[in-house]
Write a structure and sequence with these properties.
Blueprint: H1 14-17, H2 21-31, E1 40-49, E2 55-66, E3 70-72, H3 74-84, H4 87-108, E4 114-118, H5 129-140, E5 147-152, H6 153-157, H7 161-173, E6 176-182, H8 189-194, E7 199-202, H9 204-208, H10 214-229, E8 233-236, H11 242-250, E9 255-256, H12 267-275
Parallel strand pairs: 2-4, 4-5, 5-6, 6-7, 7-8, 8-9
Antiparallel strand pairs: 1-2, 1-9, 2-3
Helix pairs in contact: 2-3, 4-5, 4-12
This protein binds ligand C2E and magnesium ion (3 copies).
Protein name: EAL domain-containing protein
Length: about 280
């Protein structure tokens, strides 16, 4: 996987680089039956409006319980799926499932605004990507504005012209576009103003340092201010404490996500969560 990542960002792939060739092959073999064997499913993590404390959306997070190699987290198998091209089929599956589940969530809580779906840029190499997702949302009867597509900053940095055109096209169709893991990929400020995006997600590594690490505090503050000044909304990922939530709110961060509010839940638990009608979480 490291090969395809380009020049200067190997340090962020430690976790993935630690997979040896043997494991890589084992994962690859096992992954072939992930869809047909019904081994993939989605978890949903709530995203909160920090001001009103209301759930406004969920992020879909894929899970793989392999019959061959056991439970394997996305940080491990997504890179393999990308290397082998299997991410195209897996990504289609995730997209369709997330959209149809969101329709059901929305029936329970009308206030839900959108479903956030992680997209790998490798999916952009599929020349039918845009037409396929248009077809899926038409079939399911859900609007592009009800879908947020998350793309990590590392990928966006390496975008070629074709990738940028696809990004433009998706935005023009009305999808909400967000940059995931922001701050880890060194995108230039100039680049940032030109991207067709709506949301910036402050990487968890910065949130982790709040409040103890002053550098992380200042970086979070700067990212939120920059995002706001460019007219984007900001999401903070990985909020684990009340203190982090309060500080991020005071820094004008719009949306929060993290264990402090809610862990990723499977479909049944998400339905239960929504049925409790506890749309508004008391965080005091
Ligand atoms: P991500 O999109 O940045 O997702 C956030 C990750 O942080 C998730 O890990 C989530 O479970 C975890 N997280 C959320 N809140 C907290 C918290 O308060 N504390 C801690 N310690 N962790 C928290 P997960 O589900 O293991 O996913 C890891 C990464 O794998 C994702 O990062 C994303 O890049 C990728 N991924 C997950 N699902 C998909 C998918 O459906 N498609 C693609 N292409 N990538 C996916
Ligand atoms: Mg994400
Ligand atoms: Mg992230
Ligand atoms: Mg991440």
């Amino acid at each position: 996987h490291a090969k395809s990542l380009g020049k200067n960002n190997y340090q962020y792939y430690n976790e993935e680089l630690s997979i040896n060739i043997h494991d890589q092959l084992k994962i690859e073999q096992a992954l072939k039956q992930a869809i047909s064997g019904d081994e993939l499913y989605l978890n949903y993590q709530a995203q909160y409006d920090l001001r009103t404390k209301e759930v406004i959306s969920f992020e879909a997070l894929v899970r793989w319980d392999s019959k061959k190699i056991g439970f394997t987290p996305p940080n491990i198998f997504i890179p393999v799926a990308e290397d082998t091209g299997m991410i195209v089929e897996i990504g289609d599956f995730i997209f369709e499932k997330a959209c149809s589940d969101f329709k059901k969530f929305k029936q329970i809580n009308k206030k839900l605004q959108y479903i956030a779906i992680n997209i790998s840029t490798i999916q952009f190499r599929d020349k039918h990507f845009v037409s396929k997702i248009k077809e899926i949302i038409k079939k399911i009867d859900i609007l592009p504005s009800q879908i947020e597509l998350e793309i990590t900053e590392r990928y966006i940095m390496e975008f070629n012209e074709t990738n940028m055109l696809i990004l433009d096209e998706l935005r023009a169709l009305g999808f909400r576009m967000s940059i995931d893991d922001f701050g880890t990929g060194y995108s230039s400020m100039n680049y940032l103003t030109k991207l067709p995006i709506d949301i910036i997600k402050v990487d968890k590594s910065f949130v982790d340092g709040i409040p103890k690490d002053n550098n992380n505090m200042q970086i979070s503050k700067a990212i939120i201010a920059l995002s706001k000044s460019l007219g984007y909304r900001t999401v903070a990922e990985g909020i684990e404490t009340k203190e982090q939530e309060e500080i991020l709110l005071s820094l004008n961060c719009n949306i929060g996500q993290g264990y402090f509010f809610s862990k990723p839940l499977d479909y049944d638990n998400t339905i239960e969560f929504l049925n409790k009608k506890k749309f508004k979480i008391a965080t005091t």
